Amino acid sequence: MKFPIQRGIQSVASMLLLAAIHLLSLPAQALEGKESREPREDQPPTWIVSPSVFASSDNDHFKIARYSMGVGYKPGAGQGLMGIRFTRLQYDADAWNESGQRLDLTFDLLDPNTGHGIQLVLGRSQVAGDETTLGELAFSTSVSDRVVVNASVSKDWVESERGIQESVDATGFNLGIEFQATERLLLIGLLGQEDFSDHNQRHHQRVRAIYDVFPDLGIAAHWRYRRFQTDDISTNYFSPDRYHEQMLLLSLRRRVEGWMWYLIGGVGRQTVGTEASTQTKLVEVLISSPVRRSLGFDIRAGYGDSANAQSADYRHRYLQASLRWSF
To answer: Rounded to whole angstroms, how far apart are CA atoms 73 and 135?
Structure first.
């Protein structure tokens, strides 16, 4: 029996190989910040195995589950991480369910000190009997000591019940700037556009401010503002003509004996079209373990109460866990 997404994998692999050859031909300093340009000790080649699971549910009884297994290879220090990942997709509602699968080739070339560089994901996915190419290309670089520029292009399924039933996908284009205004204050701005396969278009604007209230304790205050305008009304996903939301949040980040703990939570207000504003909420937690005997794991969980792809009155919970094994 032929694997459903084998078609197109050969062409995807060829495209990724050409991109990887070009990226690997660049000097490592071209993608690294000033802090990382000192010579580094040679590191042996490394293989990384990374299984993960993601599950979410919402107040409309719509559930999403993703089970994936990835394998990556890094030739050595300053070299890119190349890999492959297979993901099983599952969508469920009250009297409906659908499944799918996705196979991605991945490539990362990031500066370990700044996290800046290039990330590429390119693959094929099959859901509800339809198959398409999905992926993401993201790039970030420091243009000065205070300014970082981020740019990305991505394509993915619209994960609402109707969106999956109609096999709707969205292609996104984003450009963002991070400005370190003071030692404690970081300002972030983003402009984006989404082109939906049902011939709709959405325009995004987002602004964030992060202030380190108590740097020694890892406590920061956040202000977030987002808005978008949609060209047409669609029944395949939440698509008002206008939407905006702003939130105030507090976060706590701690590192203890190699463990990293991050907690953020807050409240805000959202306005859908010309309707009266309503309250929104967000709570998220991330736990990252130290690497011991070549093993480590990450756990992320959260609760949100704000408009999303499914509806305006959208409350959802999610849990994500991943394992890292290097050898």
So the answer is: 19
- Per DSSP, 215 falls in state G
Tell the residue number behind the tokens 């196979």, with chain if given: 103
Confidence category of residue 312, pLDDT binned at 50, 70, 90: low
Cα separation, 302 vs 159, whole angstroms: 18
Identify the three-state secondary structure at position 76: coil
Is 60 exceeded by the pLDDT of residue 242? yes
Q: Is the dihedral of CA 211, 317, 275, 205 positive or negative?
A: positive
> Judging by DSSP bridges, how do beta strands 147-157 and 295-305 pair with one another?
unpaired
Residues 6+ apart with CB under 8 A from 182: none
Interval 221-239 mean pLDDT: 92
- Dist. CA 279–CA 256, nearest whole Å: 35
Taking the CA atoms of 285, 290, 291 and 292 in sequence, report the sign of the dihedral they define: negative
What mean pLDDT is predicted for residues 70-92?
A: 91
What is the per-residue pLDDT across 103-135, written as a single tens digit (0 to 9) for each? 999 999 998 888 899 999 999 999 988 999 999
Residue pair 282/251 in contact by the 8 Å Cβ criterion: no
pTM for the complete prediction? 0.83
d(CA 47, CA 81): 9
Pairing of strands 315-326, 259-272: unpaired
For 301-312, letters b (16+ CB in 10 Å) and e give ebebbbbbbbbb
What are the structure tokens assigned to 116, written together?
């800046």
Look up residue 61 and give its DSSP letter. -
**Distance between CA 52 and CA 212 in Å, rounded?**
32
pLDDT over 70 percentage in the chain: 84
Residue 270's SS3 state is strand
3-state secondary structure of 127: strand
CA-to-CA separations, 23 to 108, 118, 162, 227, 305, in angstroms, rounded: 10, 8, 39, 35, 41
CA distance 108 to 20: 9
The whole-angstrom separation of Cα 255 and Cα 208 is 24
